[in-house]
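Quick entry between incubations.
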Amino acid sequence: MNACIHARSAGRPAAAIVGVAICCTLLAGCATHERRLLAIRDGFYAGDLPQASTELDEGLKRKSRDSEVLLLERSIVQLAEGDAQGAERTLRYVRDRFDYLEQASLGESALAMLTDDTRKAYAGEDYEKVLIRAMLSISSLLGDGQDAAAYALQVADKQNQIVMAAAKDAGEDGKNPKLAYKRVALGPYLHGLIREQTHANYDDAARDNAMVVSWLPGFPYGRQDLERAQHGRHSAPGNGVLYVFAFVGRGPYKEETLELPTTVSLLVADRILSAAGNYSVPPTIAPVKVPRMVVPPNEVARLQVSVDGRAAGATETITDVGRMAVEQHEANYPRIIAEAVARRVIKKGVVLGAKEALGANEATLASLALNVAGIAWEATEAADTRCWGLLPDKIQVLRIELPAGEHQIGVAPVAQYGAVGAQRRQSVAILDGRNTYLLANFPDARLVGILSTNQP
Amino acid sequence: MNRRSFVSGALAALTAGSLGGCRGKQYAKVMHEGEPGMVGSHQAGGETFKPLIDEAVAKLLGRQAEDRNVGPEGLPPPPRRICFVAVENKSSEELGDFKDQIYEQIDAKILESQMFQPVSKRFVDAGLMQTRLRPDMLMVPDNMRMFAATMEQQGQPFDYLLYATITSGTTRENKDYQRDYLLTLDLVNVHTGQYDKQAANLSKGYYHSRIGRLRSMNPLHQ
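Done. Structure below.
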C-alpha cells in the first residue's frame, strides 16, 4: 500500500514545489510602508514640501493599500503649505474611507492569514481615527470654519465608538482593553473655543473646558479657560482672541521588529485558533515579525510667541500624540503578536498539509523542498508598519487676547534649555470679539512651510 | 499531535479567522411624518426634545396670548417682540449638535404663533458680542438696559427676554436608570419686569439589557 502511495505521488513533488513557490511569490508580504515613508519624511522635515509632494504623488500613483495613509501624509503637507481647505477635503475623504474599511472583510482576512497584515486595507490606528477629526476641525478653523464645531464633536464621539466596539475583546478578566485609552482633550478644547466665540453659549464652553481639565489635569491653561467660560467673557470690548496651534516635534512611526511571543499573546493566539476546532498553539514558537511604535527624540519643547515684539506666552501641549500612540500600541500589542503567531501556525499547517497530501516523509526531496518553501514563505512576511507618519509629536495651543487690529506675531521654537531656532513672523489682523487662528509646524528647530492663518 | 488534526485545525482556524464577513455600505432612508423615530439608547435625542419643545412653547405662548387678546379699538394687538437669548444646558448630558436645533425649533414655533415675533438670532448674537455680556448677566438691570439699548441701535427693540433651560435628574436602580428631562422656558417682560415660566418634562428609562427593559414593562414590577 505504501509502495503504491509512493508510486502515485512520485510525479507530484515537482508540482507541489512549484505550487508552494507560486504561493511564496503571490502571497509574499509587501515592502514595508516604513521604507516608503522615509523619503516623504525626509523631504518634509528638510522643509522641502515639493519633494515630499512628489514622493506622495509617486506613492499614490500605485493605487496600493497604502493610499489612504499616504493621503493622511498629504493633508499635513497641505496644512504646512497653507492649503487648509485642501487638507480638509483630503482628511474628510480618508475619514469616510476609514469608517468603511474598519469593517471586517472576509477575503482580506483570509489572505492576511496566508500572508501578513499588509494585505489588509489600512483602516487606521485608533489614535489616528480620532486625530483625523481633530485635524479636520483645525483645518476648518483655518479655512471657512463652517464645519469646525461638527468635527470637534466627532472627536469624542469616535473615541466612544472605539471603546464601545472593543467591549467584545474583553480579556479573561472581563476588562475592555481600550477603556484605558486616554481621552483626547483637543476635541472639547476646540469645541469650547468655537462655542465661546458665539458669546451666547458659555455653558457649552464651560462644559468643554471642564472636560479638558478632567482629561488633561496637567494642561496649564485649562483652569483659566474654565474659569473664564464659567464667569468671564470671551474678550473685553474692542479686543479679539488669537489662538496659536503648534505642531511640535517629529511624531511616532512604526518599524518592524522580531518579537518572541509572550505568554499573554500565546494565550490570545490559542483562543484565535481553538475557536474553530481542537487545535492548540505549540508550546514554543520562533520570533515573529511585528510592528513597533517609535517616537524619535524631539528637541523643541514649545513655541515662544511674541506680539509686536513683546513676549506673549508659550504654547502648551493639549495632545501628546507620541505618548498616545505608544500607549495604545502597547495596549494592543499582545493581540498583534497573537495574530502573527496564529498566522505562523496556519502557514506551518498548510505546509504540513501539502506534505500529507503528497505522502512525503521527512527523508524525501519533496519534503525538503516543501520545508524550504515553507521557510521562504514565512520569511517573506512583513510587519504592517503603515501609520500616519507626518503627525507631530505634540499638538500645542496658546490663547492670547489682543486689541482688534493688525499685529506682528512672532513664533520661535524653544528647548528645555533655551531658544533653538530663529523666530518667524506673520502679520495677523485681530477682529473685535472674534477668534483668529494661526498654525505653526515645527517638527525641528525650523519652521516647515508657512505660518498659516484663517485670513485671506 | 498527528498531521491530520494539525492540518484540519489549521484550516479550520484559517476559516474562523477569515469569517469576519464582508464590508457593507451604509444606507439611509427618509423618515416620514408619523413614522416612529429612533430612540437614543444612551442619552436624550429627538424623541425627548421634540415633545418637550412642543409642550413648553405651546403652553407658554398660549397663556401669554390669553392675557393680551384684546387690542385697542378692537384691533388685534401688534405682535410683541421676543428676544430669545439662549438655550442653557444644565443637564448631565452634553447636547452635542442638538443645542442649536433646540434653539431653532423654539424660535420657529414663536414665529409660527404670529402673535409674537422673535428677534433674529444673528442680531441677538451681534448684541451680545457688542456688549460683551454673558446671557446669564442680562438680568442685572444695568446690563439689561445696556443690551436693550444696543438692540434698539440695531433697529431690533424687544419686549421680552426668553431663556430655555434643560435640566435632568437621574434615579438609579442597579444598572438601569431613569432620567427625567425638564425643559423650562423663562419669559421676562423687560418693560414691567413681569416674569412667566413654563416647564415640560419627560422621563426616560435606560436599561442595561433587554430583560431589564421587559421587566420595566411588567405591571407587577414596582
